[in-house]
Fold:
Amino acid sequence: MSPSSTERGQGPEWTDPDCPVARTVDLVADRWSLLVVRDAMDGARSFTEFQRRTGIARNILTDRLRKLVAHGILAQRTASTGRRQEYVLTEAGADLFPVILTLRQWGERHAFSPGEPHSVLVDRHGVPVPEVVPAGADGAPLGVETTSVRKTGH
Structure:
């Protein structure tokens, strides 16, 4: 589920209504929302799990979960026990995996001192995930020197 037309509208809630990066930042790029998405990708489902993993205050977590559900990044469903609600990634939420992966890899390169221990993301075989390098249609690596934004007219 994606945001409704009202949520997507050209209202004042968008920092830069024409920019996909700005809209994405508006939706998920506060500190806590990205950590909730990260933990959902790692199997967290309940309010208690999210709070334990992040250390986030209950009121802030309530707000972020509500926002992520409203924008179609998480969905609420009844847990298999039938006793409580749980949160699961939607397709849109799962589509944030490359974003989380890229942030992780940037952090591995720039947020730790050489040799400082940190967690490692591994694939289903236990092998560390290789560095993500964007590539163009011709297979050549992409970077700030080889890309530009094409503005659309209204």
